[in-house]
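We store sequence with structure; for instance:
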Amino acid sequence: MERDAHRMAELAVSDERSRISREMHDIIAHSLASIVTLAEGGRLASREKPELATELFGKISDTGRGALGDVKLLLRNVDATQDDAPARGVANIRDLVEAVRVGDAPESGITYREYGTPVELPAGMQLALYRVAQEAVTNMLKHAPGCCGEIELRWGDREVLLRAVNSCTDGADAPSSDRRGIAGMRERVELFDGVLRVTTSDASFEVLASIPIPAIASKGQA
């Protein structure tokens, strides 16, 4: 019994380390990709469109402050009992996309659309969907800068679908399905009995996450 208890404690510690590692990856990787992309846009716009450059640098500041706040929240939760309120949820996905959209700058090619009637999802499920969208946006900024991308959230009667698709840059190295970011997305989705599919071609890269909606979820409150 003592050995079993010790083993369970080791597994709990390992799971917590993995959770913290995934959260840090999602927060830092997305923030840095966004900052680099926005900074490049600001540099290019500084001479011909100073007003756009000002807006871009404002976005950089907001992204940095947001990432710092997320890291502080994560570290605070390491030493405290976690509550049910996620740092981010499905309601924040639109803001996630808008944060890298500024005028007609190259990074403005990512769009967001939502279909169907929203439902109130459990906190962990909301965070999982947000992180999938965040990783998808990060991949678009890193591997297909300047190309068209789209994030879609579709509410069905039994499942919620998150689809992220972008065109590929000639010669770009599309992220493979075994890389850390996509592996992390798959782990998050499968935690809620969902399925994550990654489809690549010469023209596009697509991620589709499908998660069943719990029977207790209520309509129109997400």
About this structure: DSSP finds five helices and five strands in the chain. Helices lie at 2-48, 50-78, 93-98, 123-143, 180-190.
